[in-house]
Amino acid sequence: MDKQILVLLSQDSRRSQRALARELGMSAPAVGERIARLERLGVIRGYGVRLDWSAAGYPMTVYLTITAVQGYQQRDLVEELALIPELEGLDIVTGAIDMLARLRVRDHMHLRQLLMDRIWQIEGVQRTETALSLVEIEPKNLVAELLAAPSGEPV
């Protein structure tokens, strides 16, 4: 039942407990208790909205590979990068690079300013490579796909 709740919430996190209860054939208090438990366990970490970044004034998605200075504390670099408002996501990765950042910018000049005035000024950044997203494919609902698949894994 928890998986079904997660799938339904992933499709529309604004659904009321009463609406969820109707769809699942449960009482609203029972659904509320399950949701509260999933939140306490950290399975549900929050609720959000999907933005149209172009409409919000940030039409460019930029992927930035970052190579850190040898021996530089990764934690310090992550903390510095986290201060950048345009940083949407940051992953520490394996391979020839150390990190992969996802940025949202207004235009090429904004990107240039961000690179030159902020990112390249961070002490632990040795090298970066930039890739501009040409088309952003609508993300699939991974929650629904993975949790609906018979895996035998409990939630």
Automatic annotation (TrEMBL):
Question: What InterPro entries does this protein's entry cite?
Answer: AsnC-type_HTH_dom, Dimeric_a/b-barrel, Tscrpt_reg_AsnC-like, Tscrpt_reg_AsnC/Lrp_C, Tscrpt_reg_HTH_AsnC-type_CS, WH-like_DNA-bd_sf, WH_DNA-bd_sf
Task: Recite the UniProt keywords alphabetically.
Answer: DNA-binding, Transcription, Transcription regulation
Pfam families in UniProt: AsnC_trans_reg, HTH_AsnC-type
HTH asnC-type domain mapped to chain residues: 1-59
Which superkingdom heads the taxonomic lineage of this protein's source? Bacteria
PROSITE patterns reported in the protein's UniProt record: HTH_ASNC_1, HTH_ASNC_2
**What is this protein identified as?**
HTH asnC-type domain-containing protein
Instruction: List the source organism.
Output: Microbispora corallina
